[in-house]
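**Sequence, structure tokens**
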Amino acid sequence: MSKKKEKSVQSIEIPKIILFIAKFLSVFSSKLTTLFAAKLFTTPIKHKIPKREHAMEHESAQKTITISEINKEIVVYEYGKSDKKILLVHGWSGRGTQLVKIADELLKNGFMTISFDAPAHGKSKGNSSIMIEFIASILEIEKQYGPFEFAIGHSLGGMSVLNAIKQNLKIKKAVIIGSGDIIQDIIDDFINKLRLNPEYGIKLRNHFEAKFGGKMDDYSAYKAAEKTEIPVLIIHDKDDHDVSVKAAYNIQKHLKNSEIMITESLGHRKILGNDDVIKKIIEFLKQ
């Protein structure tokens, strides 16, 4: 693999100071280590909006709404004008304008898009979030802005879309791009990146289950897929180093009606701007 290609698909590395603190805490207290890991796991990184997203950011009608179920405010973006609405859901550390190239093509095909900055993401207030809050945001947006024809989700947004469908989001089709799948796999991968003992994967899961109630695995994408009746397009890159392509195949195995597109050399984020990917999405939604 060339250096240029490798750079385009690699995942974000955890800063050395964070690795040092995690290792240091693990020597003295497993409880403090678990709390530190939980804090990191639920704290997104806010990125500056890149130039390619400026037009969508400036041309969208923006409004702050309250998600009463979680008592948090989020910023919602209305992009374009049409009776045919599509919900866009960004991933972890993303923002409501991140799917701009997809949104622009949807506008050309007669749709408008509704997207949002999830809690603690983009312009939305807060310092922490978790998938439960993404799902609650989707369901509240449906009440205020729906009905939607379709929904498109990237990464954690894909998982959230499937879980929202499981919780009665009414749409005709869904597209998930680079979606994660099994919650424990996601937690274990995070613990591995922190270079902590694998036992902290169980400790972290138990911490979240005690804090939020219920079983974390109930939010795994494949379990939501089992309850999904509508057609779903799964798109994933085989060189995605943030989310293994095995997630795509396992989700598809549990869906009743699906199509799958596997790309190469696009990684976890460049896939959102690929012309072939966007063409496939449009074809799937319009067919």
